[in-house]
Write a sequence for this structure.
């Protein structure tokens, strides 16, 4: 129930059904993270109370969108979540979607003062900011890429991995690329990184998750249906996707 899971248009009982379905299928074999965030702090806290998160290990909570709170408001939002969270929390900073950046200073402050918050999914794309977070964070605070295209250089700077879009369609090779990076074998990781550069770009060219769902539909794994106001990719772009799939 992160961005790729169309969380803005899935709520309440339906969201619970998805949480429960995923937990049942995973059956404890892998760690699970539940997406519960929003721009109403009290509503997020209510979600913490009402959702059954049996089988889950952490919560991914996106920073508030639309309201455009100042940095103190963002800090106080996460401080409140920290105080009431039933599970450890990962911040999700994605200013291209929320309209407001969570600065390096604010993220490091949260990391130091909110001990139930153990990591950040950093999708600002700003390497100056990313390096400031990594440089000044507590040792055990994870800085996770929220952008597939910059995962390799981000790990090289000290990042912990990625919460990925492309890995929904190409999990084995993209995960292997990340493992190689984490073990310092960047020369071996580079060919896999560049193999998926154009594919990753195509997944966002006409909106996400429309792009990745087009790939998954071509693979026969799901339909390309999305919920309004999101719309499937155009016929022209779908032909480009098919060409990229054939090329690898």
């Amino acid at each position: 129930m992160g961005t790729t899971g169309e969380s803005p248009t899935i709520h309440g009982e339906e969201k619970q059904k998805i949480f429960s379905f995923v937990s049942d299928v995973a059956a404890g074999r892998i760690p699970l993270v539940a997406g519960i965030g929003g721009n109403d702090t009290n509503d997020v806290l209510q979600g913490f109370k009402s959702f059954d998160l049996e089988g889950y290990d952490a919560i991914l909570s996106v920073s508030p969108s639309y309201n455009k709170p100042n940095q103190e408001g963002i800090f106080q939002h996460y401080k409140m979540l920290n105080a009431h969270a039933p599970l450890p929390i990962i911040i999700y900073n994605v200013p291209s979607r929320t309209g407001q950046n969570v600065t390096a200073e604010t993220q490091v402050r949260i990391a130091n003062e909110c001990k139930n918050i153990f990591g950040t999914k950093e999708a600002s794309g700003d390497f100056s900011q990313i390096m400031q977070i990594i440089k000044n964070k507590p040792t055990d605070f994870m800085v996770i890429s929220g952008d597939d295209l910059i995962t390799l250089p981000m790990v090289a700077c000290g990042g912990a991995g990625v919460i990925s879009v492309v890995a929904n369609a190409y999990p084995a090779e993209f995960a292997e690329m990340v493992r190689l990076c984490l073990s310092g074998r960047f020369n071996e990781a580079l060919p896999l990184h560049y193999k998926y550069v154009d594919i990753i770009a195509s997944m966002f060219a006409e909106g996400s998750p429309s792009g990745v769902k087009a790939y998954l539909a071509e693979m026969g794994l799901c339909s390309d249906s999305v919920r309004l106001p999101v719309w499937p990719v155009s016929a022209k772009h779908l032909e480009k996707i098919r060409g990229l799939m054939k090329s690898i």
The chain has twelve helices and six strands.
